[in-house]
Design goal:
With about 160 residues, the chain is mainly alpha-helical. The protein has one domain: Orthogonal Bundle (Cytochrome Bc1 Complex, Chain D, domain 2). The chain is about 45% helix and about 5% strand. α1 (about 5-25) packs antiparallel against α2 (about 50-65) and α3 (about 105-110) packs across α5 (about 140-155).
């Protein structure tokens, strides 16, 4: 399979996941101003998304809409940027030889100013710098929070 096909497949998978998340819990919701004639049974109404879950969903939408999926394939393949599957929650080696834990602080710093830190060894920082500048993420802290929440959600479960 060519790299282009893999990227397209990863993007489609991300979009499909987004659509599934977006519709999650809305199957029994009233539509277009309808009201329910009978109250729902206790325990049958899904809980509303928590603030953190809302950040993750919004971050997933940005991940696809802003083109992040083109470089950060979620399937573990070595792409232009590191795969998020083996990224969040792991230690990475930076180009200058230091090791860093990819946590919320690391992700936020990379999204706000990718020039500030040494890039991850094996990856060119130029595409990330160009993307962050194009998206003006430094001026959109809410989007940075959403993307960081999504990236962390993809990482391994806390031990």
């Amino acid at each position: 399979m060519t790299e282009h096909v893999r990227r397209a497949a990863a993007s489609l998978l991300a979009v499909a996941s987004l659509l599934a998340l977006w519709g999650c819990g809305t199957a029994n919701a009233p539509r277009g101003g309808e009201t329910s004639a009978t109250p729902p049974e206790p325990g049958s109404t899904p809980e509303p998304f928590t603030h953190q879950q809302q950040l993750v969903v919004k971050g997933a939408r940005l991940f696809v809409a802003d083109g992040c999926s083109a470089c950060h394939l979620a399937n573990g393949a070595h792409g232009v940027g590191p795969s998020f599957e083996a990224f969040a929650g792991h230690r990475v080696t930076l180009a200058d030889g230091r090791r860093a834990l990819v946590d919320e602080r690391f992700v936020r710093a990379a999204l706000l100013d990718p020039r500030r830190e040494s890039p991850i060894r094996g990856y060119d920082s130029a595409p990330m710098i160009a993307s962050v500048e194009r998206l003006r993420l430094g001026s959109h802290p809410q989007q940075v929070s959403e993307l960081a929440a999504f990236i962390e959600q993809i990482g391994p479960e806390p031990q």
